Amino acid sequence: QVRVAESGGGVVQAGGSLRLSCSASGDRFTVKDMGWYRQAPGLQREFVASITDVGSTSYQAFAQGRFTISRDNAENTVSLQMTSLKPEDSAVYYCYVRAANQPTWWEEHDYWGRGSEVTVSS
What we know:
By secondary structure, this protein is mainly β. The chain is built from no helices and 11 strands. The chain has strands at residues 3-7, 10-13, 18-25, 29-39, 46-51, 57-59, 67-72, 77-82, 91-101, 108-112, 116-121. Strands 2, 4, 5, 6, 9, 10 and 11 form a 7-stranded mixed β-sheet that branches.
């Protein structure tokens, strides 16, 4: 089983910056994609950003130009640098890891962290 843990959430003023980090751990697994979703109270969980094992990135429209996703393949970590934060960015941010467990390398599963709360005050 792959374990996923986020860190770095907190309270920040509008216009400020915050960096979220996520680490995947376990035995005999290989990671393909890593990324972030977020969910505000009363709303559906929505995609934020993702990055593949070769560094290709994808961003939701609201994140493009303000958020930057990066990863360290050696450490199985992924980060989300958020700048120019707005009150509507307030949400619980969830890290996910798409990984395969050996020996079934062809079978990929998504693993989720418990979330890290981000509050942007106006």
